[in-house]
Amino acid sequence: MFERLREDIQSVFHRDPAARNAFEVLTCYPGMHAIWLHRLSGSLWRKDLKWPARMVSNFGRWWTGIEIHPGAKVGRRFFIDHGMGIVIGETAEIGDDVTLYQGVTLGGTSWNKGKRHPTLESGVVVGAGAKVLGPFTVGAGAKVGSNAVVTKPVPAGATVVGIPGRIIVKSDETDAEAKRKAMAEKIGFDAYGVSEDMPDPVAKAIGQLLDHLQAVDVRMEDMGKALKSLGCEYREKELPELHQEVFDCIKERNETKVGQGI
Questions:
Q1: Crossing angle for the helix pair 174-186 and 201-229, nearest 10 degrees?
Q2: Do 190 and 218 fall into the same domain?
Q3: Pair 40, 56: CB distance under 8 Å
Q4: How many structural domains are present in the chain?
Q5: Measured between alpha carbons, how far is 30 from 147 in angstroms, rounded to an integer?
Q6: How far apart are CA 115 and CA 254, in angstroms?
Q7: I need a labelling partner for 250 at 20 to 30 A (CA). Which of 57, 81, 126, 210 fits?
Q8: pLDDT tens digit string along 114-141?
Q9: Is the pTM for the entire model greater than 0.85?
Q10: How many whole angstroms separate alpha carbon 72 and alpha carbon 244?
């Protein structure tokens, strides 16, 4: 018992720089209180003392603002930061070293009996306000962004953002990225969607469009040179002007959505 308590306190120091000492963690961290009460309610639940288990769980909800059903399975070194508004359903399963922030819901999408809630494998981090809904698995080491709504399995190590949740992948194509940026600068467009800070399926689509524009641009230049070399009367026409303020408006709107976790 005391070994688990020491382990819990150390997990707070590892993941919360605001923690100053063990006494503060013991007395002022509602996430820890909710976990300890859940161990008691879970023990009662497994002994088929359902009503006392629910009463302990209900007391924990009143005291901490965190609702963990007694039937939920929770691993070691589980850390709830801030915690207010967290809901964890009956058939949820949480592995070791998992971190949840405030407003997270591990919920179900069905009223059928059986497995209804998600399984979070070891090392998962779920950001503030995120909703993970359904009987699927979030793989080890995965991260769920703030306010994301996840209703499908998440591979180990992946990062999910948005509504509905989308898996984001960082690109290793440095040459392609350089060409995309060059094309973006040429047409007067700030490539906010293809930066390293916002890897996203939408950004990937924008990147592919820029790749296509780059190829078309090169092909047109080659065709113009070929026509001139054949003695044809070829005169390049000016392209329509692109107004920078339009793209600035798009960029500002996108940054606002990102800040809101959309």
A1: 70
A2: yes
A3: yes
A4: 2
A5: 22
A6: 37
A7: 126
A8: 899 999 999 899 988 899 998 999 998 8
A9: no
A10: 53
Q: What sign results for the dihedral spanned by CA atoms 20, 25, 30, 34?
A: positive
123 with 45, same domain: the answer is yes
Are 154 and 65 found together in one domain? Answer: yes
Provide φ and ψ at 221, rounded to 5°: -65, -40
Q: Which residues of 185-213 are buried (b: 16+ CB within 10 A; e: fewer)?
A: eeeebebbbbeeebbbeebeebbeebeeb
CB 94 within 8 A of CB 113: no
Q: CA 150 to CA 104: how far, in whole Å?
A: 11
Q: What is the pLDDT of residues 212-231, one digit of tens each?
A: 777 887 888 888 777 777 77
Beta-sheet pairing, 159-161 with 166-168: antiparallel
| Residue 64, domain CATH | 2.160.10.10
Question: 31: closest CA among 95, 99, 124, 89?
Answer: 99
**For residue 108, what are the CA distances in angstroms to 8, 60, 153?**
28, 21, 14
Q: What residues form DSSP beta bridges with 131?
A: 105, 149
Residue 49, CA distances (Å) to 42, 46, 54, 171, 227 in order? 10, 7, 9, 52, 87
Q: Which domain holds residue 248?
A: 174-259
Which residues, including other chains, have CB under 8 Å from residue 195's CB and lie 6 or more apart? 203
What's the rounded Cα separation, in Å, for the pair 220 and 26? 69
